[in-house]
């Protein structure tokens, strides 16, 4: 038994956008057992914002202590790594011979209202890639990407993730695991050598970014910097993913040139 401290590295190696929530490596109700599957959920959270349910899935609700998942998936495809240990998300159920849900799975809470909200392609793409990366890492097959509604007993107790056809989804996961093309990752640097920056990094490049987007230049890329960067990207017609890559640096250069 051990915590899944490999999660962030595995997801990042798969080219996914990863944000590490402070304290995730030691967060959990207990240690995990042998990981045999990935369980898919939706948050049933607010209709606006990228990952407005992050605090809830990290700290819990009045009736259930957090963490409530291992990874939270934003609408823009960002993977927020919440907990390396056991999370409360599965409840009673069974799938392919597995009956211990919380200790045997990586639980993913994807931001979606669950009441007819369309799934953005960038989020679905990340969901499938996330599942493929984890299943490949633990040596499991695509069938072990399981919807909460498929797992839960008695049947009909859960509906999540609403609107995702799991047969088609698992086919997509299988394709990725078999080498199907996926979206290219954000380049590590732009043409001038400036690094791609995301939540959790620190240093002088972060200070430069913070000064450009109008937040306190303390050199630490935290939640406030990420929120301000998303707003800046939105205002400049970029995908508001909260990651400063070549496109964001180019927008900053353009703004400076026009000043």
Automatic annotation (TrEMBL):
Residues 23-162 form the N-acetylmuramoyl-L-alanine amidase domain. GO terms for molecular function: N-acetylmuramoyl-L-alanine amidase activity. Keywords: Cell wall biogenesis/degradation, Hydrolase. SMART domains: Ami_2. Its EC number is 3.5.1.28. GO terms for biological process: cell wall organization; peptidoglycan catabolic process; peptidoglycan turnover. It comes from the Bacteria. InterPro entries: Amidase/PGRP_sf (IPR036505), Amidase_domain (IPR002502), NAMLAA_amidase_2 (IPR051206), Peptidoglycan-bd-like (IPR002477), PGBD-like_sf (IPR036365), PGBDSf (IPR036366). It catalyses: Hydrolyzes the link between N-acetylmuramoyl residues and L-amino acid residues in certain cell-wall glycopeptides. Belongs to the N-acetylmuramoyl-L-alanine amidase 2 family. This is N-acetylmuramoyl-L-alanine amidase. It comes from Methylobacterium variabile.
